[in-house]
Write a structure and sequence with these properties.
The complex is a heterodimer of chains A (about 950) and B (about 160). Chain A is of the alpha/beta class. Chain A has 29 helices and 36 strands. Chain A is globular. By secondary structure, chain B is of the alpha+beta class. The chains are: A alpha/beta (about 950), B alpha+beta (about 160).
């Protein structure tokens, strides 16, 4: 297995329809009009040497290496900037061209370490290859005089810059740089951060970050696009400098957010040297963020637990045991509990971090092995309202578009989502479209980077009070209906007309007018009207939303309100429009698809459906309960009541990620057998009796489904460090429970899913191998998958408008708790941080901070950096303050990446009326100066420390 | 971004310049000129303020400022003397002129005398090739510089 080599065509693909035929070095080739000679040559199989060109970037024409001769034209034009024309005859290798190329390379090396015969860098960069290719042998210019390469020949050389090692993952060595601008262009065009520039001019010009700052202090977000673009060793991964170039690679899928980027895991031996974004990945097209590209170090972190462990009581230290013992112990405990307390006294939680196949097995274990429906998943706490809301309105629980669709959007509406931090690769795509002129409406209590950052500015930022989404969305609908902006033709053809009329009458009520609503949502009425008109009339309108919509007591209502807006304006069923939930985790879409909810079998089919149950009853040979099982919060309630005693948790840290930590802790503590399967001793494991070591995405085969319903392959690049991949461990547990499971490869699990689930009917590993990825539904009516949904009609038949009455949350501010706390993510960290905190990403974010408006801070005598106490009705915690006007007065904000912060000690157990999705985004709090960690935090630290003890393997 | 602290005087002044001019078409260069006029140079602290005002990155503003030699990183002396070092002047002895000036003023190119009277700079063509070697003192061109003119210039900037 070698290194996968992706062809670099040098310039981007032309989208023109007209074809042009030309001859390159005697070979005829036909390409779309507008293609560069360089790209056409590559397609003809003739590679023209190049330095400043790469097909991720527009051509630039600065390196003067890619010159060609064209019959009938003078000179030697650059092939990257010269478009093809009909009948053109191109020569890429002539004596004249060889001499020019050699001459140019010789000039380059006259100010480059390779001219010094000094081994620096890898010796294997594109630059080194071109030098070899042109047959460069000498440097007649000598090595004296001004240069950028060495700190002076006896004199202090001001042109020399010391190597910048500040970024934890890559170095910048200006002496290797040929100032081709590829990094600057990648930062601007691909990533959209504009952190790099060329300083000075002429001989003095060189690449710098920010205002000639070191990388880590500059505006750089460490996405690595510049490193990927660099044709020399000037920008280079530290791992590669240390260990040399990788030797083999495997295409797989990132295990961080719901964008689902494809990567080549590039390896040397059994070690990952770097994760290189895969250009063939349809979700990311060769781009990445700091997490996916660099933050994989957790996979080999010393904190990983590689042996199963058990203990009698959670106050005991852990005892390392064999897999056999751990599994037998678990099985006998679960059987004992079921015998003693009833069949429904146990349950399982599937993970959005694991593969579809693993998730499917866990729900199968619960339904077939435990004989109940007590299975739930972490989507409960994030996108369950999406499932419910979109299911009600459109008939299916998923985003309507593929990511590429954004390229045709004219008006982008971002609601309660922060894509540049939480879905960075898609955020960059969105910013590209915004720079091309698309308009932007941001609905968020906080001023996210999208509202205003270099070259991006929202036309409207509706900074509403947390908790008032439904009121705002309904008043937007009021404007659309009362100002006659409804796309009546679409509604009449595609939607239930009666339901529409009922809804239109409801939203048109004066009580829903911006002038009335603005008083309690904190957004000026004219902004509401402006935004509504823009969305309704600005062309293709696309809505992207996140947890700022769902994690509310009216989360499901808000999702339906969004669905209403899209239907009323006809923004559904074609490219550039749609309703798109930005999924938080790599496989949250997939874990929902796989029947992880207590009321649903795979493919969102209700458990009460006799026909669906029959399929599984026959296959699994058991009788399935036709009543939904317990949701996570119900399991915890039942545990406190004593009727629920055993839980199998795969890859989720409910103690840290679920609301009202005290309640979760009490529920877990009341159980008799808590089995945690994870990479690390997570916070939930503090209350566990059995710990089964988990495997990372690098250690298994499987599939993840991203936010655009795209099923991507995950491929094993190394053996499981703890013997079993997660699906194997679940299978072993099932066997210990007496089930006859004999999967030898995850593809067989996918086959079972396909055979039983209509929307996955044609999915198979062979198909994924062939197509790279596929978007469900994938069946006989859509054999190659479905990039855009609801094209000719809604899945449910006709779209359904649903009244969305605003009901204020019970979580209200008052004299004791006057501020509203809302939560979110930051770019460099991921969710509860179990992975990213175990990487160098902590350089950028080593603690959670409380963002507070200067006005609120001043009233309380708080300065930036002070410890503050945040207290709600549920609990209190302390963290340090960050004073900023990103949040409005009356609103405070924090991230939840660090366990010591325990932001969820503060959040309440209010939840969505339909799905129990917790109301993370609204908590009434008071903030006061503090001396340091709260009593709870100190106690918790101590409890966590004690519960993580592992008994030494003493002689018995 | 962290809220800007109450800020130095520079930041407040630059912010008001940016506010007044950001509606212009292509406002960056005129703003930088105005800042240089106000302070005599373009202070580093001004760049983030300009960047944020124009919705550009710091890197972009820095790239522009560093491209143009006329934007100063620090205040110049009371007089600014630019000596042409381009081809025509070189062939007519500008190296020698520069050497004499350096010696007489006791500073190198890009430096300012300790008493703040004069800053010496190279320039690459003043369009005075017919009168080489040429120089520019405080915006006024001087042609056909010889030893006497060097003395004259030195006397004037020292006055």
């Amino acid at each position: 297995m070698g290194l996968i080599h992706e062809v670099d065509y040098g310039t981007p693909e032309s989208q023109a329809e007209k074809q042009v035929t030309l001859i390159v070095d005697g070979k005829p080739v036909t390409v779309p009009e507008g293609t560069s000679i360089m790209r056409a040559s590559m397609e003809a199989g003739v590679e023209i040497p190049k330095l400043c060109a790469t097909d991720m970037l527009d051509s630039f024409g600065s390196c003067r290496i890619c010159l060609v001769e064209i019959e009938g034209r003078n000179g030697t034009p650059a092939s990257c900037t010269t478009p093809v024309s009909e009948g053109m005859v191109v020569h890429t290798r002539t004596e004249r061209l060889d001499a020019i190329r050699k001459g140019v390379m010789e000039l380059y090396v006259s100010d480059h370490p390779s001219g010094w015969n000094e081994e620096r860098g890898t010796g294997l960069s594109e630059f080194d290859k071109v030098a070899t290719e042109v047959g460069l042998e000498e440097n007649r210019y000598g090595l004296d005089g001004r240069n950028h390469v060495a700190p002076g020949n006896g004199s202090l050389n001001i042109d020399y810059l010391v190597r910048d090692e500040s970024n934890p993952y890559f170095t910048y060595d200006a002496s290797q740089c040929i100032v081709c601008s590829r990094c600057v262009r990648a930062c601007e065009d691909v990533q959209g951060t504009f952190a790099l520039t060329i300083e000075g001019r002429g001989f003095e010009s060189r690449i710098v970050a920010g205002m000639s700052e070191n990388f880590v202090e500059s505006e750089c977000v460490s996405c690595g696009a510049c490193v990927q673009a660099c044709p020399t060793d000037a920008l280079r991964e530290k791992t590669v400098l240390e260990h040399g170039m990788p030797e083999r690679s495997v295409v797989t899928t990132c295990a961080y957010c719901g964008v689902g980027c494809s990567f080549k895991a590039e390896m040397k031996g059994d070690e990952v040297l770097r994760m290189m974004p895969y250009k063939g990945g349809d979700a990311n097209h060769g781009h990445s963020c700091v997490k996916g590209r660099f933050a994989y170090g957790y996979a080999t972190h010393r904190d990983r637990i590689l042996k199963p462990m058990i203990r009698e009581k959670i106050s005991d230290p852990w005892r390392e045991v064999s897999w056999e013992e751990a599994l037998a112990h678990t099985a006998s405990e679960f059987r004992r509990i079921q015998h003693q307390y009833g069949r429904t006294a146990v349950g399982g939680i599937t993970s959005s971090r694991c593969t579809n196949e693993e998730t499917y097995l866990v729900q199968k274990l619960v339904r077939q092995g435990f004989g109940n429906n007590n299975v739930d998943t972490c989507a409960r706490v994030c996108h369950s309202p999406t499932g419910y809301g979109l299911g009600q309105s459109y008939g299916t629980s998923a985003g309507t578009q593929d990511f590429d669709s954004v390229e045709e959007s004219d008006v982008i509406v971002v609601i309660g989502a922060n894509p540049t931090d939480a879905h960075p690769v898609f955020g960059s795509r969105m910013k590209q479209r915004l720079r091309e002129g698309a308009r932007l409406i941001v609905i968020d209590p906080r001023r996210t980077d999208l509202v205003r950052s270099p070259h991006v500015k929202a036309d409207y930022h509706l900074a509403l009070r947390p908790g008032t989404n439904v009121a705002l969305l309904t008043t937007l609908a009021h404007v659309i209906v009362t100002e006659g902006l409804v796309d009546e033709q679409f509604v009449r053809e595609r939607c239930e007309w009666d339901a529409f009329q009922d809804w239109a009458g409801f939203v048109a009520d004066e009580a829903n007018s911006p002038e009335v609503v603005s008083s309690y949502i904190g957004v000026p009425a004219e902004d509401i009207r402006g935004a509504a008109r823009l969305y309704a009339t600005g062309g293709n309108g696309a809505i992207y939303y996140g947890l700022g919509v769902t994690e509310h007591s009216q989360g499901s209502t808000a999702v339906m309100a969004i669905a209403n807006l899209a239907m009323a304006t006809g923004n559904i069923g074609r490219r550039g429009v749609g309703v798109n939930p930005l999924r938080g985790q790599n496989n949250v879409q997939g874990s929902c698809d796989m029947g992880s909810f207590p009321h649903e079998l795979p493919g969102y089919r209700h458990i009460s459906g006799d026909a669906t149950r029959a399929i599984y009853e026959e296959l699994w040979g058991v009788k399935l309960d036709n009543e939904p099982g317990l949701r996570i919060p119900n399991m915890l309630d039942a545990a406190v009541d004593g009727s629920f005693r055993g839980l199998y948790v795969q890859g989720e840290d409910i103690l840290q990620s679920d609301p009202d930590t005290h309640h979760v802790a009490a529920g877990l503590a009341a159980m008799e057998c808590v089995v945690v399967q994870d990479l690390f001793l997570n916070e939930t494991a503090n209350y566990a009796h059995v710990f089964l070591p988990g495997s990372t995405f690098l250690e298994k085969d499987g599939t993840f489904t991203n936010a655009e319903r795209r099923i991507n392959r995950v491929r094993k690049v190394m053996e499981p460090k703890a013997r079993y991949a997660d699906w194997e461990a679940t299978q072993e547990l099932a066997r210990a429970l007496g089930l006859d499971w004999n999967y030898t490869h995850p593809s067989q699990i996918m086959d079972e899913i396909a055979a039983t689930t209509p929307s996955f009917a044609n999915v198979s590993y062979e198909l994924l191998e062939k197509m790279g990825s596929v978007q469900w539904p994938c069946n006989d009516s859509a054999p190659e998958g479905t990039p855009i949904m609801h094209v000719d009609g809604f899945v449910r038949g006709k779209g359904r408008f649903i009244r969305t009455e605003y009901v204020a949350t019970d979580e209200k501010t008052g004299p004791r708790f006057p501020l509203l706390l809302t939560t979110g993510r930051i770019l460099s960290q991921y969710n509860v941080g179990a992975q990213t905190r175990r990487t160098e990403n902590v350089v950028w974010h080593d603690e959670d901070r409380l963002e507070i408006h200067p006005h609120d801070a001043e009233q309380r005598g708080i300065r930036s950096g002070d410890w503050v106490r945040v207290a709600s009705r549920a609990g209190e915690t302390t963290l340090r303050a960050l004073i900023t006007d990103r949040v409005s007065p009356g609103v405070v904000y924090t991230t939840f990446h660090h366990p010591l912060t325990q932001a969820n000690v503060v959040t309440t157990d209010y939840s969505d009326w339909a799905t129990n999705c917790p109301e993370y985004k609204v908590t009434a709090v008071q903030v006061a100066p503090s001396n340091g960690p709260s009593d709870w935090q100190v106690e918790y630290e101590e409890q966590a420390r004690r519960s993580r003890r592992i008994a030494p393997l003493a002689a018995e | 971004m962290v809220m800007q602290s109450a800020g130095t005087g520079i930041e407040a002044q630059v912010a008001s310049i940016v506010d007044g001019m950001k509606g212009m078409e292509g406002p960056l260069l005129p703003i930088l000129h105005e800042v240089q006029k106000e302070f005599g140079y373009v202070p580093q602290d001004a760049l983030p303020v300009i960047a944020s005002g124009l919705n550009l990155s710091r890197a972009e503003v820095y790239g522009v400022v560093s491209f143009y030699h006329d934007y100063r990183k620090e205040p110049a002396g009371r007089h600014v003397l630019k000596v042409c070092q381009a081809e025509s002047c070189q062939s007519m002895g500008s190296d020698d002129v520069a050497a004499r000036l350096r010696q007489a003023l006791g500073i190198d190119f890009h430096q300012t005398t300790p008493d703040g009277r004069v800053t010496l700079e190279p320039v690459y063509c003043l369009g005075m090739c017919a009168c080489s070697p040429a120089a520019m003192l405080d915006g006024e061109v001087i042609g056909r510089i010889d030893a006497d003119k060097v003395d004259e210039i030195v006397a004037e900037v020292r006055a």
